[in-house]
Design a protein that fits this description.
Blueprint (H helix, E strand, L loop, with lengths): L8 E4 L5 H12 L3 E6 L2 H15 L5 E5 L5 H8 L11 E4 L14 H29 L2 E6 L12 H17 L9 E8 L5 H14 L3 H11 L8 H11 L11 E4 L9
Parallel strand pairs: 1-2, 1-4, 2-3, 4-5, 5-6, 6-7
Helix pairs in contact: 1-2, 1-8, 4-5, 6-7
Length: 266
């Protein structure tokens, strides 16, 4: 299927590895020019080189090693040489989730940091790009959030709260005037994927249940109807579809990618 987005420009956060990398790769393979953002320059540049090799130089790929959660980081992205400024056709917001733990241990600073990264930063990126998308008659914004928005995880309270705030914001904004101007905003909710994030949360969950990390991993995968963790490549394919011409009638949605783990009907 031709997704109809070749030649467009995409901004992808957290693009050096994991789910962000999966999205950047899927878009680039569809002919999209991608500005890849992550904090770690070494890993990001390696991801850029690998993707250039895979795409054979058919698309423009730019790496920006910045913290997208800061104003200075975002300014660096808007002003990067060879980039489209703020004239992106596709924006994939993605910031690493806050650490797991017990809510009794989180002070105000921990909450502000989580909200800033996982709610306010995506809103800033939307604010900077959405009007240009509307003026050009095409725009796709995909926010990588979490399945915890639908089914909260007790040790991920910071993530539950911050991402739910973003979800509420998107529910209203996606249905505003921009919906009739060719711009869609959707949230893509990953369940358990085999990334650094799952590896960082497993120890806390294992400790809480008195299990080893290996036992906890096996328990989790057994609870997923698909019988396994997801992988970044298949996640990226879903993201690319949401960014495509074919998803023009989908907006304001929370799309679960969790191998069937969420048990609800709705």
């Amino acid at each position: 299927m031709d997704l109809g987005i070749a030649g467009k420009w995409a901004l992808v956060g957290g693009a050096s590895k994991g789910l962000g990398w999966g999205c950047a790769r899927a878009l680039a393979l569809e002919g999209v020019n991608v500005v890849m953002v992550a904090r770690g320059a070494e890993v990001l540049n390696k991801a850029l080189d690998d993707l250039r090799a895979e795409t054979g130089g058919q698309v423009q790929l730019i790496a920006v090693a910045q913290d997208i959660t800061t104003e200075a980081g975002r300014e660096a992205i808007w002003n990067v040489a060879g980039g489209p400024g703020k004239n992106y056709d596709i924006v994939v917001t993605n910031a690493g989730g806050p650490p797991p733990g017990d809510f009794r241990d989180w002070d105000r600073e921990a909450w502000i940091k989580a909200i800033d990264a996982n709610m306010l930063t995506p809103i800033e990126l939307i604010k900077a790009t959405v009007d240009g998308m509307a003026a050009r008659g095409f725009g796709r914004i995909v926010n990588i959030t979490s399945s915890s928005v639908k089914s909260p995880i007790d040790v991920l309270g910071l993530s539950n709260g911050a991402r739910s705030g973003l979800t509420g914001f998107v529910a209203g904004t996606s249905r505003s005037k921009i919906a009739g101007q060719g711009v869609t905003i959707n949230n893509l909710l990953p369940g358990r994927f085999d990334t650094d994030r799952i590896r960082s949360t497993l120890p806390a969950m294992a400790q809480k249940q008195g299990k080893t990390v290996e036992e906890m991993r096996a328990i989790q995968q057994a609870q997923i109807p698909a019988g396994r963790y997801g992988n970044p490549q298949e996640f990226g394919a879903i993201c690319a579809f949401l960014c495509s011409q074919h998803a023009a009638y989908m907006t304001g949605q929370n799309v679960l990618a969790d191998g069937g783990a969420y048990p609800g009907t709705y």
